[in-house]
């Protein structure tokens, strides 16, 4: 099976293009956008980890190491497409249009963090593992029924493949030929559980065989592989050719969440080694240097702009009006039931009484 | 019967069918999903003829996968449709519990109204029809405890149609429980075309000053029979058909209990954790000083719904309800 | 995939052995046992349909047409093995040792119908689809942990493959190398839904690829194919080689249950045609005639003995003491909780009051 | 402290760990399954060190598949083992709801005791620790309504260990809810080795004649604080820690309510459909004539457990409980 599903690269570890047919599509503009988003996501991610350490946001889920997966796939989307992310995919979400402030609010325990910018079909992050897959299949089927050319991308991890919802979601999409791309980030761990204990199969891509849909295994640290293969899968979807399962093999450098201690279950030397050899950003830099796209000043400028953007988002978060407990009651139903209305009134009156 | 609108004489399951047909005609965004609902017209014939009339794109036979098609329906609801999902029997809804509990019911609250899930989940429920084992659960309380979900349970054809249409038009997810024991038990005049019965309102079926009898779904005829027998003994009951299980019709319950001071609740589900406990709590909250006797609950037992050879013993009967009425009145 | 997973036969429609390596193992004793059980299950099944029509039992689930699957696989088991059946597998259960009376009681709505003969590891039939698969994997893992050579067989239909529990059960078994045989009876319908709407994949066997376990597709109306392939899979399990997925392609002639009307969703001519061409019993008869095993007198005798056994079971059912409502309360917990004890007491007292 | 047995000073989560270690030593048939419970020792360290001590065969990291490993555990329980399953957070138990509801809870009844499922499902539950969204459900009532399942919820380290050991030895399935907010909130002397706390018995934490305050799990410290404040105002409360949620300790509740005539129940879960409604019903059934005031319920609201920025508003607080105590006493 590993031979049937080889890890495909377009660019190798040294930043060399190995699939030459893509050359023509790798424009300077695309590369610059990719680089900017990679730097933006990594900078933001690190900032969040540090905000968490300072107690300025709650527990946080870092994605460092997985930037090529998230940026590359999100850039492959069209504006009208749908995104069904997990708790780890704020890199993808911010690339697709979610504001940094929203992301920060989310990790600050604020409901506002679930609201995408107007018109952006970014569903709030899914916390219960794999539950987004059937929903993404359904949303995709709805696009098909409306007769649009829109597609859906849904993210999930290697651990998520063990859940029944993975199976039911893929089967539904397959039977109804729904325009959805199942984008798996195989970072090889589900918290502490390595993929070898998650499944006996050596690849995730091969699971597509169960549904007679295409499965493809790519190097998730090669942003070109991610971008072009996702784009092709989306194209298939738009053309009525149905769903695709993409396994993007990657690695998270850090902890599962800021509450996690990865040294308990794996040798962090491995992360160091991967950072030095297969880092997605380093790889794109190597490519840019090799191809003469690289401009130190420009790169510094990118970093500075990103820093400023991140700082501004943090400032916005800090300035944000404090959480309004009424919000907890007001959006459960379109019209509050009497139960909720009474509870709200009683609680708010009591609270005002306590405060005044 | 002469009324302004034309009516048809329908059973409850026919009224459900009529509601679905009416809404499939009325709104393009209505879409039906479930196991065997298409060509077969549903194992109870609730969707009979609908696929032939509206096509395979609107009346969809799904794979055997409750979590999968309920989840997919949530995705469709997020994306502009009004899915009506059939769970073949309520006892088979549990695989979809996660999708309903965490997603359908919470999406609006989680996104402050930005994303909503206007969907209906229909499920026949209950015992009393000699079904094979595990087909007879009546676990409405597992859903009334779920914030973000409305729960409806009609007892008559008229209400079934009007409430199902209201549920489909409701902007929020609704669990619509159909008492399978009442599916073909009797017929009623049902208006043609579209009408709604308001969600959240109970119905007074009988007026009396001595005791309040509260029931829903398949227990309504049981309560009514008991009330008739009681009347013959000079005990006059207010009989309330709840119709909506979340939110309860607090006003009608409180007004009746404050009038009678005595209450009997008839519930098919297991005693512990049942909706009847909530009604006791509601009476405690609203009508403490009016109560002349403890509220009596006539319920299924704290045992799994048994095989059908035992179901007549499991299910509340008019005799058991009458017994409770008398005890309550003579307290 | 269909080519990768061909339908394997050992005996063709004409009763000719096509896989000659099995010849030596097809003893007269084995063939006679198979024939006897086929006749026994079919006779019993028809009796139940007629009892249901007479209102002497409740709704019933017939299996006519699937006898080779059920008998062949059950005969392949060893005494100490476990069986996890569905509501349709009373043919398998009675072959493995459940009494006919128990089966009748089950369909009469009696809890006694769930109790297997002492020492027989026949779990009661599973009604909620596919839920038995993870449990069978767990029971199998338990055998492995105990260090026995016992295996587990678990039955399920084509429709069951769409449930999450199918996926989670197979994955669990695969990861823990549990000694379990996943025996799928692909009768090509889940109530009214044909397999083509249940899945896009052309075979069920190929779903094994998702778990890196062997998947095999056999002719479920060829009792030799069923018997020998199941035996081999059980052997693999016993030898610590892990689970196998068997897809036995078959057909139910009749309704899904006695409450179902198959003419609503399929042409019953197809059933007639299959009965005439691929019936599992006819096929074995052809083999027996061809090989000189056939003895009309013996066959009549088999039928008569089976008739007598069935009649006796029906008589036992009719004589059975009537249902005791106390049973409903007494077995929920090892010791009844006060809730149940009080409810029982109140109800039984009231009932006695009503009767007395 | 000098006692006949040696004790250790443990937090609640350490007491859970100690109970599991004790039983892994005591009984060969005990086997632990769950996500991240092995090498990682559990996301809350409840199983810390156990895999190292007892091996990968007895402390098993499972695939991420609640229905799968709960179902597998049922199979193991059918086949002679005593599995203890960890659900990482109660809010992630719903995918396994079907396996628990239909199989774990019903197997004994369905087979008249021939097959049994002696298993324990452990799950941390509740809000108040700034966890990410959907990690904070407290839906015990979804399980107390499930016939065939016992439900336990300890509030202290001593009870956690004694009740968990009792649960593992219990011949029937038990849901064991661990208040994650109390995991490391305080320490207590816990005996070494094996001891049990009886399932089904509540604990009186404070004696008083004016009002009964009933709580469980993470609400016990809240109730106690409120009772302390009330005492300063001259109101003396009986404070009951339920410990077992199914079956309730009817005798202790009834005796206390019959003494005080006034009751306040503190529940973290949503009001409607919560266990508190059952307690109101129990008081209605046992102590109607003793009640001097309606039972007050201080509960979470009928809204999804909110993001953590709002959880202090969602959760019952000592101040809210005190308010209810005063209202009840002054009724
Ligand atoms: C249904 C469910 N079970 C358990 C959890 C707890 N949990 C959160 S993340 C996680 C691991 C997920 O692993 P994977 O799918 O590989 O995604 P990754 O975190 O590596 O991105 C677990 C077990 C959950 N969120 N939902
Ligand atoms: C979880 C669940 N959903 C729905 C049903 C209702 N139901 C009973 S049998 C059946 C079809 C099963 O088809 P298949 O798995 O092919 O088995 P077969 O009946 O053909 O033997 C359905 C939908 C059920 N029993 N359980
Ligand atoms: Mg992962
Ligand atoms: Mg089938």
UniProtKB/TrEMBL annotation, chains A, C:
InterPro entries: Alpha-ketoacid_DH_E1_comp, DH_E1, PdhA/BkdA, THDP-binding. It comes from the Bacteria. Residues 257-278 are annotated as: Disordered. Keywords: Oxidoreductase, Pyruvate, Thiamine pyrophosphate. GO terms for molecular function: pyruvate dehydrogenase (acetyl-transferring) activity. One of its GO terms (biological process) is branched-chain amino acid catabolic process. It is an enzyme of class 1 (oxidoreductase). Its EC number is 1.2.4.1. Residues 258-278 have a biased composition (Basic and acidic residues). The pyruvate dehydrogenase complex catalyzes the overall conversion of pyruvate to acetyl-CoA and CO(2). It contains multiple copies of three enzymatic components: pyruvate dehydrogenase (E1), dihydrolipoamide acetyltransferase (E2) and lipoamide dehydrogenase (E3). This is Pyruvate dehydrogenase E1 component subunit alpha. The gene is pdhA.
TrEMBL record, chains B, D:
PANTHER family: PYRUVATE DEHYDROGENASE E1 COMPONENT BETA SUBUNIT, PYRUVATE DEHYDROGENASE E1 COMPONENT SUBUNIT BETA. This is Pyruvate dehydrogenase E1 component beta subunit. Keywords: Oxidoreductase, Pyruvate, Thiamine pyrophosphate. Pfam families: Transket_pyr, Transketolase_C. It comes from the Bacteria. InterPro entries: THDP-binding (IPR029061), Transketo_C/PFOR_II (IPR009014), Transketolase-like_Pyr-bd (IPR005475), Transketolase_C (IPR033248). Its cofactor is thiamine diphosphate. The keyword Oxidoreductase applies. Residues 10-185 form the Transketolase-like pyrimidine-binding domain. GO terms for molecular function: oxidoreductase activity. Gene3D superfamilies: 3.40.50.920, 3.40.50.970.
């Amino acid at each position: 099976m590993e031979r049937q599903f080889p890890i495909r690269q377009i660019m190798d570890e040294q930043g060399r293009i190995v699939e030459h047919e893509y050359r023509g599509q790798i424009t300077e503009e695309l590369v610059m956008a990719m680089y900017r988003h990679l730097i933006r996501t990594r900078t933001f991610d690190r900032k969040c980890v540090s905000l968490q350490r300072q107690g300025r946001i709650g527990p946080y889920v870092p994605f460092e190491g997985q930037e090529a997966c998230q940026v590359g796939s999100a850039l492959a989307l069209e504006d009208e497409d749908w995104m069904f992310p997990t708790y780890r995919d704020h890199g993808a979400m911010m690339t697709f249009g979610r504001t940094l402030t929203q992301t920060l609010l989310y990790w600050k325990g604020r409901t506002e963090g679930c609201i995408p910018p107007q018109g952006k079909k970014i569903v709030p992050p899914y916390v219960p593992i794999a539950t987004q897959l059937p929903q993404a299949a359904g949303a995709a089927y709805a696009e098909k029924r409306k007769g649009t050319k829109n597609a859906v991308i849904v993210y999930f991890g290697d651990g998520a493949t063990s859940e029944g919802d993975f199976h039911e979601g893929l089967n539904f999409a397959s039977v109804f030929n729904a325009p959805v791309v199942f984008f798996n980030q195989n970072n090889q761990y589900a918290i502490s559980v390595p993929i070898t204990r998650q499944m006996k199969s050596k690849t995730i891509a091969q699971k597509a065989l169960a549904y007679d849909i295409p499965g493809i295994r790519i190097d998730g640290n090669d942003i070109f592989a991610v971008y072009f293969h996702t784009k092709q899968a989306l194209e298939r979807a738009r053309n009525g050719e149905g769903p695709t399962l993409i396994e993007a093999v990657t690695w998270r450098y850090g902890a599962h969440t800021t509450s996690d201690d990865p040294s308990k279950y794996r040798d962090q030397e491995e992360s160091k080694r991967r950072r030095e050899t297969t880092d997605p950003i380093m790889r794109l830099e190597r490519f840019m240097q090799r191809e003469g796209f690289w401009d130190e000043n420009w790169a510094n400028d990118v970093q500075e702009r990103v820093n400023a953007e991140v700082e501004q988002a943090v400032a916005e978060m800090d300035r944000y009006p404090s959480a309004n407990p009424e919000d907890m009651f007001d959006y459960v139903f379109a019209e509050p039931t009497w139960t909720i209305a009474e509870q709200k009134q009683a609680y708010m009156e009591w609270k005002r009484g306590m405060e005044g | 019967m002469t009324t302004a609108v034309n009516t048809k004489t329908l059973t409850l399951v026919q009224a459900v069918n009529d509601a679905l047909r009416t809404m499939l005609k009325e709104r393009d965004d209505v879409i039906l999903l479930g196991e065997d609902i298409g060509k077969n017209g549903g194992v109870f014939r609730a969707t009979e003829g609908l696929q032939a009339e509206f096509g395979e794109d609107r009346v969809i036979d799904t794979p055997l996968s409750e979590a999968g098609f309920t989840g997919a329906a949530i995705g469709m609801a997020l994306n502009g449709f009004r899915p009506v999902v059939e769970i073949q029997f309520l006892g088979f809804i549990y695989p979809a519990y996660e999708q309903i509990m965490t997603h359908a019911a919470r999406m609006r609250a989680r996104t402050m109204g930005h994303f909503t899930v206007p969907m209906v989940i229909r499920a026949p429920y209950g015992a009393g029809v000699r079904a094979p084992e595990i087909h007879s659960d009546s676990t409405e309380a597992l859903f009334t405890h779920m914030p973000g979900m409305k729960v409806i349970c009609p007892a008559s054809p008229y209400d079934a149609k009007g409430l199902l249409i209201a549920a489909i038009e409701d902007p929020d997810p609704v669990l619509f429980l159909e008492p399978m024991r009442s599916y073909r038990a009797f017929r009623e005049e049902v208006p043609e075309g579209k009408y709604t019965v308001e969600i959240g309102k109970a119905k007074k079926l009988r007026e009396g000053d001595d005791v309040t009898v509260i029931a829903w779904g398949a227990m309504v005829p049981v309560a009514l029979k008991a009330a008739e027998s009681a009347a013959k003994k000079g005990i006059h009951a207010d009989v309330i058909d709840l119709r909506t299980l979340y939110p309860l019709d607090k006003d009608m319950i409180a007004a009746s209990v404050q009038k009678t001071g005595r209450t009997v609740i008839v519930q098919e589900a297991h005693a512990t954790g049942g909706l009847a406990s909530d009604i006791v709590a509601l009476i405690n909250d609203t009508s403490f000083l009016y109560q002349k006797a403890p509220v009596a609950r006539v319920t299924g037992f704290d045992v799994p719904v048994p095989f059908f050879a035992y179901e007549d013993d499991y299910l509340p009967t008019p005799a058991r309800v009458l017994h409770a009425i008398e005890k309550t009145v003579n307290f």
